[in-house]
Design a protein that fits this description.
The chain is built from three helices and seven strands. With about 170 residues, the protein is of the alpha/beta class. The strands form two sheets. Strands 5-4-3-7-6 form a five-stranded mixed sheet. A two-stranded parallel ribbon has the order 1-2. β6 and β7 form a beta hairpin. α1 packs antiparallel against α2.
């Protein structure tokens, strides 16, 4: 599967990889070396923790590199005036809850639903992507729950470098 990412997503991942390789890896290796020198490794929790942290660092580097290697770069076009696109702020009326909600549609790598940054590949993101003000969309979750939302307002946005990539 290929992830659709922006040039800024790729840049942020490359920066994180570089930071992990050049700054974090030497620190974690030193921690492992110091823990190893404390004696019996079978009962050395510091050694196990240091080893786990180093392995998690390597795993994150591999994960980010694989995403970069398989990514499809999304071209953010300005000709989609009036329809929901990436990085747009969307005001929705949620019919079941009788309330409004604002979301910003982002790439999967920068989602943070708690802060209102919704992945374009999430059920809600897929439902609103490409739609216009006044459209009523049906959102079907992976659990089978369905609800309706009406698009009340679209504010055009742009790829914002201040949005962090997910650390999952």
């Amino acid at each position: 599967m290929h992830d659709e990412l922006t040039k800024i997503d790729i840049k942020k991942m490359q920066e994180e990889i570089e930071d992990r390789k050049m700054r974090l890896t030497p620190i974690l290796k030193q921690n492992l070396k110091e823990a190893r020198e404390q004696g019996d490794l079978s009962e050395n929790d510091e050694y196990k923790t240091a080893k786990r942290e180093l392995n998690m660092n390597y795993s994150r580097i591999r994960y980010l590199q694989a995403m970069i290697d398989t990514a499809i770069i999304v071209d953010l076009k300005e000709d989609n005036e009036g329809v929901v696109g990436l990085f747009d702020k969307v005001k929705l009326f949620l019919e079941d809850e009788d309330e409004e909600e604002e979301i910003v549609l982002v790439t999967t790598l920068r989602q943070d639903a708690v802060r209102g940054f919704v992945s374009k590949e999430s059920p809600l993101g897929m439902a609103v992507m490409g739609k216009k003000v006044g459209d009523r969309v049906k959102v079907k979750t992976h659990t089978g729950y369905e609800y309706f939302a009406v698009i009340k307002e679209i504010t055009k946005g742009e790829d914002d470098e201040s949005l962090n990539i997910s650390r999952f």
